[in-house]
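Changelog entry: the Haloacid dehalogenase-like hydrolase record was regenerated in this release. Current contents:
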Amino acid sequence: MALEKMFAEHADKMAFIAENGTLVKVGKDIVFESGLSKKQYLEVIDTLLESPYMLGYDFLLSGESGAYLHPKASDDYLNFISNYYENVQRVADLAQVEDNILKVTANFSEDTVRQGEAWFNERISYAQAVTTGFKSVDIVIRDVNKRTGLEALCQTFNMDKSEIVAFGDNLNDFEMLDFAGNAVATENARQEIKDISNEIIGHCDEESVMAYMEGLVE
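Regenerated structure tokens:
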């Protein structure tokens, strides 16, 4: 998991909500997990490839052990996505992947990402596409999101949601912020996120989240 590598020195003492809420780890222990079956993720792929909003073959299967690309995925997408995922590899036949696939992420154009999200959600009932960036969506099992991941973490540590501070800027943060006792949006957040937040801080590129957290422990 890329997050564990990023915080390698302290990962065994940390808790992670990853893959848009489909994987929750406390130290080395998995406390919550929800993935797509092979039949489901293959149907998701077929549906994406039918979409008029899809950018070629630029989508990725994100699993516990690695991340898997269509053989025709562009080099630009491979280089871009490798910044965020570990063990990214092109696979000749995605049906042969032997991994627990937690989510599918796909690229649309910046102008059509919301239409692409809506188009997909009209076609598959068991999965939910949600915008995660200016031109990308994550597709996970419906009703699994960062909120369910945060709920699992609260249960593990016997915490109440009133004790939780959560930060977000995009639509895949919506349920999590709605759950948290204190919801904090960054200046660059989508308006829907700002509307449900208790506070709005600076732009995410200005280390505003780090500054806020440092203020909590001073």
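The two ends are 30 Å apart (CA to CA).
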